Amino acid sequence: MDILNNIIVKTELTKGTRLETEIKENKTGYLMDPGTQTPGTSSGMSSGTISASETVSITRCNSYDIEELTEGIKKCVGMLGGFKKFIGTSKKIILKPNLLSASNPDLAVTTHPAFIEAIINIIKKVCVPGTKIIIADSPGVSTPHTKKDLKRLYKECGLSHLGEMENVELNLDTGFSEISFKEGKVLKHLEIIKPVLEADLIINMPKFKTHNLTKITGAVKNMFGSIYGRTKTLLHTKFMDIAKFSDMNLDVYLYCKPALNVMDGVISLEGEGPGASGKPRNTGLILAAINGIALDNVVAELMGFKRGIIPLLQCAAQRGIKGAELEEINILGGELADFACENFILPKKSPVDAISKNRFLNTYIFPFIRNNLSLSPYENIKECTMCKTCIEVCPEKAISEGQGVLVFDYKKCIRCFCCSEMCPYGAIDLKYSALGNLIFGRKNIK
Ligand code: SF4
Ligand code: SF4
Questions:
Q1: What is the DSSP letter of 361?
Q2: What are phi and psi of 37, to 5 degrees?
Q3: Structure confidence at residue 23 (pLDDT)
Q4: How much distance in Å is there from the Cα of 3 to the middle of ligand 1?
Q5: Ligand 1 pocket check: which of 379, 394, 397 to mutate, most ligand atoms within 8 Å of Cβ?
Q6: Distance between CA 421 and CA 32 in Å, rounded?
Q7: Distance set, CA 82 to CA 85, 288, 335, 357, 367 (Å)
């Protein structure tokens, strides 16, 4: 079976949604070209010698005054062709801000409500009548993915009034779908929140922030907030290695593939971001790009990181993804050096680095979490023909043949689910342990 026709096997997509359309069109090559779809459509083709996908536009904006923001955002996105070009006839638009935690906007941890409001106002003037604009995020682990907690998040982040605007909704749908993503490098299964799956168009609205694990948290990392609630915790545990964690973030970004990234860098976060340990800093910037990897590359440069040390960009470069090299990027709005943030405080410590070196956690706690809370593969004896494909593809040699049955070594198993992906007979089920079921309240997955 054509691998691209088989990208999504388990989600219940609404007919006509963005993802359904992409699969029908059998789009190829976007792993190498993450932002080149013609906005509002899905052509997936690069456009010329300097592709728009490697273009980042930058404007100055010194306050969250709505009029000033509106002008600044229009100017910034205008350099890429303007919002209308991206929105086309989309009827359901997802705005994906960074809503890491229920934080006062003054802390600069989250995308500022005025920034979101300005974008809504601009979109409303160019979209087709009746277009629904939905603000959606799956916040950090400190905020459970429940209606009650999402309401609290919106209130604390200063967004409640936006939900009262005509045709604008603060997402309260806490559902998700299990997606099979065969093209992911390290993530073959994703649990994506429903509004992201059902969108015609996604506009990613990251914040200009440091991150004490990944160094920056920009456009790519912001799409990690498309992963359902506590699954994010499991992925953090599963991908303790920073390179794997970065590849995982790339997989999520490439799967969700927002049509446009518009970054709030008016008040940014320096030092020990991405949460309240960071310090707000007036940087007065708005940035936009189709290609989120290129945008993050520019952010790292403006913050003053040495080139080549951002793990996400290293991984993107290894995968040949466009925008990973600064030389590929065309800057619009001025010279890159003119926008540099002088003496921007970079993060020093990486708690996860320290944690990952902790022998007790590594020996007892993480294996316990992995073995007891993650999904695990099991043989469906009725369906299995003992073809041994799974034994051959398992990268950890965690499957062997017993007496007419498969034997899984869960101590070796890294939960990559290649066995389940590759079984020609669908004979590998994914199951939570009793404890996992209790905590996550989930049905097991066929
Ligand atoms: S690939 Fe499927 S059918 Fe073949 S041995 Fe493994 S579980 Fe059984
Ligand atoms: S058994 Fe092997 S292939 Fe299957 S999930 Fe575990 S490590 Fe991956």
A1: I
A2: -65, 140
A3: 35
A4: 19
A5: 379
A6: 22
A7: 6, 11, 21, 47, 49
Ligand 1 in contact with 428 (CB < 6 A)? yes
Residue 73: band (very low, low, confident or very high) from pLDDT cuts 50, 70, 90: very high
- Say whether pLDDT at 7 is over 80: no
Ligand closest to CA 376: 2
- Residue tagged 């995968």 (tokens): 319
Closest ligand 2 atom, CA of 415?
5
Identify the residue whose tokens are 């008016």: 266
Enclosing H/E stretch for 209: strand 207-211
Q: Which amino acid is at 381?
A: I
Three-class secondary structure of residue 223 per DSSP? helix
Which amino acid would we find at residue 220?
Answer: V
DSSP 302-319: HHTPPTT--HHHHHHHHT
The helix/strand/coil state of 168 is strand
Backbone CA torsion sign across 99, 100, 105, 111: negative
Distances (CA, A) of 315 to 225, 246, 281, 318: 20, 7, 29, 5
The model's pLDDT over 321-361, given as tens digits with 9 standing for 90+, comes to: 999 999 999 999 999 999 999 999 998 755 445 555 566 76
373-440: what fold?
Answer: Alpha-Beta Plaits (3.30.70)
Span of 61-65, 105-109, 213-217, 356-360 with lowest mean pLDDT: 356-360
Domain range list for the chain: 3-353, 373-440
Can you list the alpha helix ranges (DSSP code H) found in 205-290? 219-222, 231-238, 242-256
